[in-house]
Write a structure and sequence with these properties.
Elements: H1 2-11, H2 16-46, E1 89-92, H3 94-100, H4 105-109, E2 115-117, E3 130-132, E4 135-138, E5 141-142, E6 146-147, H5 152-155, E7 161-168, H6 172-175, E8 189-195, E9 204-214, E10 217-230, E11 235-247, E12 262-273, E13 279-293, E14 300-301, E15 304-305, E16 321-336, E17 341-357, E18 360-361, H7 367-376, E19 385-386, E20 392-413, E21 417-432, E22 440-453, E23 456-469, E24 472-474, E25 477-479, E26 482-498, E27 501-513, E28 528-543, E29 545-563, E30 569-590, E31 593-606, E32 624-633, E33 643-651, E34 654-655, E35 657-658, E36 661-662, E37 668-669, E38 672-682, E39 692-699, E40 707-710, E41 716-718, E42 723-731
Parallel strand pairs: 5-8
Antiparallel strand pairs: 1-7, 2-3, 3-4, 5-6, 7-8, 9-10, 9-42, 10-11, 11-12, 12-13, 13-16, 14-15, 16-17, 17-20, 18-19, 20-21, 21-22, 22-23, 23-26, 24-25, 26-27, 27-28, 28-29, 29-30, 30-31, 31-32, 32-33, 33-38, 34-37, 35-36, 38-39, 39-42, 40-41
Length: about 725
């Protein structure tokens, strides 16, 4: 509540009760505005003496969503068509996000096979991080550069996001590792979020309201987005706001029955000014607040809830809450110094505060009772609840960043040889007051060069990082000041002998010191954690706007510190290998049919476990995962411009773990199949205004009961049941 109370005091609100009243007022105003605008428009149409200037009208429903971007930036810091890259980038475009209406970042990234989360709860030691290609600890970043900090990945409202680029494989050579305990980021990839910001192309105002109803679940979301140009088209301001009220299914059953629903809002003002064709600068800001009932899931046994729990039940008490708030500032400047030389400056400050009280499901970790649970799925003591050291916690996390990027693109021989050289010095600082990460300033320098000669492109890069862990105290221990360095290289090649055929491959490595740890003798560890990937693949273009990509990879993560029961380093024997293959098909089959299909196979081996022993080769995440999303626009007849959409997600069986380690074959998640359908139609089909669109959808069409994520085997989060959704969207 730290940030919110300060903000509310500035606004004249005295405390939480006044905030709740303000929240409800804001929600009612937004929803009422959405409801009243059709009536106003209809009145304007029927009253011959009245004139309404709506500005530029964008006809919704006739445009087909685009699932494939023209270029991506997060893989090289330069705008490159994704088919020409020597690495794999999966992109969730703005059209894709708008069509699926995800509520948060987790909801959105579920559409990408091979991405897993360690539990959607603040009780997790690293809330809001993701696993990519079997390697964990990936913290999402804003604009491909600034880490958003612990917790933010759980609550980032997807309506604020323009698009997301998931870069596969170790990328420490581009933006560095994290350099802290349990956060060896960059081992499997990076998640780059590009936020919506002010635009100079047009004035635009949009409204959206969505209502979802299911068995014991209800959700209302209201969203507004306004962009206004001034100073003769040289400047623009954009304000985006969202309000969300959600009653999850687990509030209708068990000890949390009757709890207050989730209450959340976000606002993101931004500004841009372009005084000349060569220079533009601006500011992006964001404030989010969420107050929701706590939830840490239920135990699993043979694919179903164990320990006496039902599917949609919570161990928490009615007063247990998770509260999160963050504030972000992001000034930036682009300067096209010459035709070949671009300078980019960026900075970020993100401060987040969270607190939570959570009662956990009961678990005995050893002894006869634990063995009984493994055999029967029930606790012989009859217990269902417990509290741990993390059950009541709070933290303030601060992240600061700064970079200067020089991009030099030059045609050495026109249409024959092109060179793109990137130099970027940067600085990042993060700290947490809750003992969830050492305060670490990081100074980095990235050098990268890409040379294209006709159909051959060579990419090479190296990054140097210097880490300074400040002295701090946590958990009764004093951690000394420590400094360390790391060098992360990568090389890649792509061959395009034909316009429709590309071969590619890369070798990349992330190296980062394990700061924030202490050895048994009291010294600071000096070893460097490293993750190395070898990858090769091919891309084909079967149709003019459709690309098929197939790749195989192998990632080795070495020198992972081994931690004893009291949190001290006992050695660096950790060695895991992740091998797999991925397939993606994205683009347009025709002018009226777009598709994105992705498949991921992963085989995980923990080489610190002896051969032929349980836990060496096991599915710590689904070995097979697949997603298919497609939209089809009816091009003729009475239903012309109506868009039909369908989505399907599959995950194969996987095992529930304890701190990532195998426990028992009975502690597993069964395979799951989730189907979503939707239809979008312009209201003009029914005599309404042409700039309004009605959408109808069903999520989890067949009511699949499944687990969507987990922290430990006794804290597994259940996916939402079948829900029916109706939405209304307008642009002016």
């Amino acid at each position: 509540m730290i940030l919110t109370n300060k903000l509310l005091n500035l606004l004249g609100y005295g405390g939480v009760q006044q905030y709740v009243k303000a929240f409800k007022t804001i929600k009612m105003v937004v929803i009422a505005s959405v409801a009243l605008i059709p009536a106003v428009l209809c009145a304007a149409e029927t009253n011959e003496t009245s004139v309404a200037d709506l500005g530029i009208v964008v006809v919704e429903g006739s445009a087909l969503s685009k699932y494939r971007p023209e270029t991506v930036n997060g893989a090289t810091f330069t705008d490159v068509p994704p088919e020409k890259l020597p690495i794999v980038v999966d992109t969730l475009t703005s059209d894709f996000i708008g069509e699926h209406n995800p509520t948060d970042l987790h909801d959105l990234l579920r559409q990408v096979p091979g991405i897993e989360t360690g539990g959607k709860s603040l009780l997790v030691r690293q809330p809001g991080t993701f696993t990519i290609r079997g390697m964990g600890g990936t913290t999402p970043m804003l604009d491909g550069m600034f880490p958003i900090g612990s917790g933010a990945g759980l609550f980032m409202d997807a309506f604020l996001i323009d698009h997301v680029e998931v870069v596969k494989g170790p990328i420490g050579s581009l933006n560095g590792g994290a350099g802290a305990v349990q956060n060896a980021s960059g081992g499997g990839g990076s998640i780059n979020m590009y936020m919506k910001s002010a635009r100079l192309d047009m004035d635009e105002f949009s409204l959206q309201e969505n209502t979802s109803i299911g068995r014991r679940t209800f959700r209302q979301r209201a969203m507004a987005d306004a962009n206004s140009i001034f100073l003769d088209g040289k400047a623009a301001v954009r304000i985006i706001g969202t309000v969300d009220c959600f009653e999850p299914a687990y509030l209708g059953n068990g000890s949390q029955k009757g709890s207050r629903p989730r209450e959340s809002f976000a606002v993101a003002p931004s500004f841009v000014f372009r005084p000349s064709e060569e220079v533009s600068f601006g500011l992006k800001t964001m404030f989010q607040y969420t107050d929701q009932p706590s939830y840490i899931g239920v135990p699993v046994w043979r694919g179903r809830p164990g320990g006496g729990y039902s599917w949609y039940e919570s161990s928490c008490r009615s007063g247990d809450r998770s509260k999160y708030e963050d504030f972000m500032l992001n000034p930036w400047l682009d300067w096209q110094v010459s035709e070949d030389w671009l300078l980019k400056f960026g900075a970020s400050m993100m401060v987040s505060s969270w607190q939570q009280t959570t009662r956990e499901p009961y678990s005995a970790f050893t002894g006869a009772e634990f063995q009984d649970y493994l055999d029967t799925g029930t606790w012989s003591s009859g217990n269902k609840y417990m509290l741990s050291d993390f059950s009541d916690s709070k933290s303030v996390v601060r992240n600061y960043g700064l970079f200067v990027r020089s991009v030099y693109d030059r045609d050495i021989l026109k249409d024959v040889i092109k060179n793109s050289f990137v130099v970027q010095p940067d600085y990042c600082y993060r700290e947490s007051s809750g003992g969830f990460g050492a305060p670490v300033p990081r100074y980095g320098l990235t050098l990268q060069d890409a040379v294209t000669w006709r159909w051959l492109t060579l990419l090479g890069g190296v990054r140097y990082d210097h880490f300074e862990q400040e002295a701090y105290s946590s958990g009764g221990r004093r951690y000394r000041h420590n400094a360390a360095d790391a060098v992360s290289p990568r090389v890649g090649v792509s061959l395009q002998p034909l316009e429709w055929l590309v071969f590619f491959g890369n070798v990349s490595q992330t190296r980062t010191p394990m700061l924030g740890l202490i050895c048994e003798d009291g010294s600071a560890p000096t070893e460097v954690w490293r993750s190395t990937q070898w990858e090769g693949g091919v891309r084909l273009r079967p149709l003019e706007k459709l690309w098929l990509a197939v790749s195989t990879y192998r990632i080795e993560q070495e020198n992972t510190p081994q931690i004893n029961n009291v949190g001290m380093v006992t050695g660096y024997d950790g060695h895991v290998v992740s091998r797999g293959a991925e397939l993606s098909l994205s683009g347009d089959i025709s002018d009226d049919w777009t598709v994105m299909a992705m498949y991921a196979f992963n085989r995980y081996t923990d080489r610190s476990v002896s051969p032929r022993q349980p836990g060496r080769d096991f599915e710590c995440m689904p070995a097979h995962s697949f997603s298919l999303n497609t939209s089809y626009r009816i091009s003729s007849g009475p239903l012309k411009d109506v868009v039909l959409g369908c989505g399907y997600r599959f995950r194969s069986m996987s095992y529930a773990t304890m701190r990532g380690a195998y426990v028992n074959r009975n502690l597993r998640f069964d395979s799951s199949h989730v189907v979503d359908v939707n239809v979008s139609m312009p209201l003009s089909k029914f005599g309404g205004p042409e700039n309004w669109t009605l959408s109808l959808g069903i999520r989890n069409l067949f009511g699949e009961k499944y687990f969507e994520s987990s922290r430990h085997y006794y804290e597994c989060l259940v996916g939402e049941p079948r829900t029916f959704e109706i939405g209304l969207r307008a642009k002016f």
